[in-house]
Amino acid sequence: MLDILAIIAPIYIAILIGYSMTRAGIFAKTDMRVFGKFVINLALPALLFRTLSQRQLGEILNISYLLAYCLGSWAMVGLGYFWCRRAAGLNPATSAFYAMGMSCSNSGYVGYPILLLTLAPVAGVSLALNMTVENLLLIPFLLCMAESRQGGAGQWRALGKSLMRMAYNPLIIGLLAGLAVSVLGLKLPGPVIRTVDMLATACSALSLCVIGGTLVGLPMRGHGSRITPIVVGKLVLHPLLVFVAITMVPMLGLGEIEPSLRMAAVLMAAMPMMGIYATLGQVYGQEDFSAVTLLVTTVVSFFTLSALLWALGRYWSLA
Of the candidates 109, 208, 225, 298, which lies 20 to 30 Å from 43 by C-alpha distance? Predict the structure, then answer.
């Protein structure tokens, strides 16, 4: 267990550093937005480009992984949405927003740094595969669902806007550019490779400090009963459903996922929700709730991820 804590502790120490420096006034909250823009618009796209451009197409287009993660995530979306509508009596827009919190992981800011320490050889590939699922298949559809309160035209308008945003999204551009280099077998000049490496290397530590700084000053009252189902769904049910989907993939006639990628998929599903969850909450009048949910999920994930790493070590010989 001490080995597990040694793996995960640096992640949360980096988050704590970002929190402490922002709380002490060394950085302002607005600085975190600037750092976050750097990560999202430069560092993460460079990381995705580097990962995909240096690998064979067969390693990147892992159909078994993509299908398993899709099935597990969509199962979580369905369960979360059903619970919100039937048990909690929430409207369609709020239900879709809650389901997004249960099914969309923080793959870039938290997931990749943790995989870098635990499963480094497949960390980049797993990040690229997860970004593909989340940015192309999950988030646009969930945003469309969240617009359902505006009627049919609102839904199609929301889907169109999501697709347009994706076309200019640096993450998608980096992903597609790296894929193109891999497919065409291009050899990039040394200066280009070193520049991409330099930007990609900045991703891990800075992204964690951004998470910590973003958590400063969030309100912490009156949300407990509403937060708990989302925290349980994201940190417990989502990885469990992805695990079940991984075991089902061979039954569908597809090849088994290699052990390291199996563990990576389950770990990615167990991450806190995506960092932009609080920002999206402003659109649907859920800014305080979404911010507190992000804070609580990030804190609780220290314990759930530690337990999951231990369990995976027992089940898949990680430790």
Answer: 298
